[in-house]
Amino acid sequence: MDAIILQILNGLDKGSAYALIALGLTLIFGTLGVVNFAHGALFMIGAFCAVTLNALLGMSHQVEDPTRTDFLGNPLQVDVPYVQDIFGEALGASIIDWAVPLSILLAIPVMLLIGLVMERGLIRHFYKRPHADQILVTFGLAIVLQEIIKAIYGANPIPTPAPDAFRGSVDFGQWLGFQAGSIIYPVWRLVYFFFSALIIAGVFAFLQFTTFGMVVRAGMADRETVGLLGIDIDRRFTLMFGIAAAVAGLAGVMYTPILSPNYHMGMDFLVLSFVVVVVGGMGSLPGAVLAGFLLGILQSFASMNAVKSLLPGIDQIIIYLVAIAILLLRPRGLMGRKGVMEE
Questions:
Q1: 3-class SS shares of the chain: helix, strand, coil, % to 5
Q2: Element holding 116 (H helix, E strand)
Q3: Which fold has domain 2-59+99-329?
Q4: Half-sphere exposure of 38 (CA within 13 A, CB side)
Q5: Where are the chain's structural domains?
Q6: CB burial of residue 179 (10 Å; 0-12, 13-18, 19+)
Q7: Of the N and C termini of the chain, which has fewer Cβ atoms inside 10 Å?
Q8: CA 183/CA 178 separation, integer angstroms
Q9: Gap between the Cα atoms of 98 and 175, Å rounded
Q10: Is the pTM of this model over 0.85?
């Protein structure tokens, strides 16, 4: 039982990232009808927002420390971050320590701006073009963005640690009444899961309970009718593109302590997230979230040594096998609208 719970936790961890990226992809496809292959790059840019803020907060200058000397008795030169000069030693150190969560404050406006510029500057010109054209242009944009990141930050992964309070592991099994030490799990991965659940709940609440969200949902169902009512649905859909970009960026920010950011991490998640969208149902927000967590858990179980010894490599293809099976039996996906992808 403890092994099963551990794999479920691992699956929820992976599924959280899949679900957040797939949620943004589905928002864009459901509102604009655009297949956005640059969405993984938005996840990557969010991660590098955390890298950037961490580097900025770590900027320092050297001062003499009279309490410490070298072997000749001369005062040592020590690095003092500028943040500590501004806020004091204790508060400054705390701000540096909490760089990743604080990066959310940087990522939200940056990702909103990038999303709005991307939609207004490029995507809008491909609304009525075939999906193949949309895929080609957004995939090309993703390559350009990752090469820009590579040129600025280099090709090597950049470690970005979690705050000290959330490093290490917790005895999760003891919380459930199991024997002490039976289920040890990293604290930050649990934080990421709860953060993802909060973002997903926030997006659904925004769409369900606000006037803006209700208009957007109506536009997703019947864009022409909403437009005939005198509502500028195009502007609302543009804002939804920005919100979808922000969701992907926040997913990337909080994932940095789990996976050190690198320039190709967006592509690594993009393909799997598109599979999640298709399995959940094109345009279905609940389907994207459900499929993200289900496929994450399946991939986690498939990565167990006992399973891989029987079926080598199954952890690499299990998601695609499940996708093939579901689409053969139910082409519109788990929760897709009737008629979508079924003709």
A1: 70, 5, 25
A2: helix 99-121
A3: ABC transporter involved in vitamin B12 uptake, BtuC (1.10.3470)
A4: 25
A5: 2-59+99-329
A6: exposed
A7: C
A8: 8
A9: 26
A10: yes
